[in-house]
Amino acid sequence: MRIAIVSDTFYPQVNGVCNTFGKMVEYMDKKGTDYRFYVPLWEPRVTANDSDRIFRFDSIKPWFYPECRLAVPNRRNYIKLKNYLDRFQPQILHIATEFSLGYLALKYARESGIPTIMSYHTDIPSYLKYYSFQFVENAVWAYFRWFHSYAQLNLVPSQSTMAQLQVQEFSNLSFWKRGIDLERFSPSHKQEEIHNQIALPGEILLLYVGRISAEKELDVLIEAVRILRDKGLPFKLAMVGDGPYRQELESRREPNVVFLGYRNGKELQNIYASADVFVFPSSSETYGNVILEAMASGLPVVAPFSGGIRENLVDGYNGLAFTIANSPDMAVQIERMITEHDTRKRLGENAVKSVANKTWESVFEELFQLYGSFLRDNHKIQKLTA
Asked: To the nearest whole percent, how much of the chain has pLDDT over 90?
């Protein structure tokens, strides 16, 4: 099976989509799948160790999000992409972005007639309000509907995303769920010295991992922290990640918040396992990979029961849910985690149990079964129309 995947986000960028594709590369290498990735170019020194199956395209830093790259959707990049795909002759073209490289890939798909799968990863329309662009939300949904109408199969990560796209009249929807590496993320990586480097003795260590950007609703979290601090509760909040909103949050000089920047690999695993509670305010996640990472690490979760988070958060079993965008309610749930040791311990133990069967191996086995069925169905259609 020859598969071409086109994405505007890929290593070395850090997010859930990149993590998913990184695991997909590992799975395909293990299975001997013939694949190619077509992704934006970062600094050559950063991507010098790319394999010969990863192809990079000229890109720019978007002004609104300088931590990522977008390939330039110009004629030069289109000809380059077309030449690569013509040589590779993929059996499936998987487009994982609606922008720049995705647009060029769609142009190629329409011209060549190649069987095309798309995947929906990021709830861009819901993010617009955080950047004062809500007036174009309907136009963005119209563009997304047009774009995804050319896919024979549109993959979504969660029930909530499926329902959202059904309301928006998307067609050919199917699931591509997410998994977790249970060796990388485990309570066994707990290290007291990491906890003690961030929090004082007797303090509960709260943890946030993710982009530090407005659409993550971090104002809700910071206000909840202020409420808890004013009550004199013993805690520190470690924020792992970076993004365009970090400078604004740091300027508030909240004494109970520590910004750690990007962390990855074993260092990130150890931080997860060494914290006490995972806190996550975002209500617009299409899935929420970090929720799985936290639960696998033994952390109970405080998050809104919204979006893709609903796939994994069970209120009162592996975490506590709060009302969307409600800082006082978030503070109430975090306070329970801080003051109720037995509750925190029980929810953390249940968190580990709740993700025990969500392995990447099973996720990609399902995906490739879907790929296989998709190819067989397309061959049948081609024979009927020949």
From this structure: 87
Give whole-number Cα distances, 232 to 276, 335, 378, in Å: 18, 11, 63
Residue 77 to residue 87: CA distance in whole angstroms: 15
At 45 the pLDDT is 66
- Work out the number of other CB atoms within 10 angstroms of the CB of residue 256: 17
Query: Quick one: tokens of 137?
Result: 């939300």
Q: 218 and 326: one domain?
A: yes
For the entire predicted model, the pTM comes to 0.91
Dihedral (CA of 22, 93, 127, 174) sign: negative
Q: What are phi and psi of 205, to 5 degrees?
A: -100, 110
Tell me, yes or no, whether 198 and 264 share the same domain.
yes
Instruction: Tell me, letter by letter, the H, E, C secondary structure of 240-272.
Output: ECCCCCHHHHHCCCCCCEEEEECCCHHHHHHHH
Domain count, the chain: 2
Residues 135, 165 within the same domain: yes
Could you tell me if 273 and 138 lie in one domain? no
Per-residue pLDDT reduced to its tens digit, 51-72 = 999 999 989 887 766 677 888 8
Question: Model confidence over 257-305: pLDDT tens digits?
Answer: 999 999 999 999 999 999 999 999 999 999 999 999 999 999 999 999 9
Same domain, 172 and 191: no
Same domain, 269 and 145: no
- List the domain range (segments joined by +) for residue 302: 187-354
Calpha distance 279→258 (Å, rounded): 14
Q: What's the CATH number where 60 sits?
A: 3.40.50.2000
- Is 31 in a helix, a strand, or coil? helix
Instruction: Determine the pLDDT at residue 383.
Output: 52
Best mean pLDDT range from 15-24, 46-55, 142-151, 375-384: 142-151
